[in-house]
Amino acid sequence: MVAGNWKMNKNLQEGIALATELKNNVKNPACAVVIGTPFIHLASVAEVLKGSPIQLAAENCADKDKGAYTGEVSAEMVRSTGAQYCILGHSERRAYYHETPEILKEKVGLALANGLKVIFCIGEVKEEREAGTQNAVVKAQLDGSVFHLTAEEWKNIVLAYEPVWAIGTGLTATPDQAEDMHRYIRSLVAEKYGQQVAGETTILYGGSCNEKNAAELFSNEDVDGGLIGGASLVADKFCAIIEARNNA
Ligand code: 13P
Description:
The protein is α/β, with parallel strands linked by helices. The chain is built from twelve helices and eight strands. The chain has an eight-stranded parallel β-barrel, surrounded by five helices. The protein starts with a strand and ends with a helix. The relative contact order is 0.15. 1,3-dihydroxyacetonephosphate binds near residues 167, 206, 207, 229 and 231.
């Protein structure tokens, strides 16, 4: 899978233009392609993507089912736009909006209950990597929010390893650092759900992944694709990353 995460970029018209360009350029990808857009784009972009293999993700959803939560957007609302995925647990949500493992567990449950697949992000900050605690950090993130799921529910989970120190910094994890962590994550999934499920789990890498380094990152056995921020905002770059995945 190659998934884009537009974050808080692109107004509605710009978003529709980018989605249209992607639709015109991505006809027969050999991997799943997903674009994550702001809430306000979802319904319009879903319309643009009709008949396209590109799938659509929200970048968040509420931790409540429905009701008096001014300004929030529920998983059911996301699903009603035609989106198939929801990105949850992104480090920016954890850091700036104080989303705890418990809150994320609620969101994951609601997303799955409403028929959305979840791209669940995990990853350590720079100090944790420097202290050598990255494995424990990632394990705790999985234990806290998704490892309670049944094997059946797990089929709708995609993991994205995004080392926080690599996001938007131009500092990419080396292919070895990415592969080491992805292999570790897969081993944790195997402990929980068995070898076969672990083998079928998609584990994406995110963090300054771009059209230049994607092929090398994707050449690792346990790196199944990417979750792309900055480079997903330019159609040519995003398409080149899809191409790199197709050729991996
Ligand atoms: P960048 O690709 O801009 O580093 O962002 C990665 C990311 O956070 C994707 O979710």
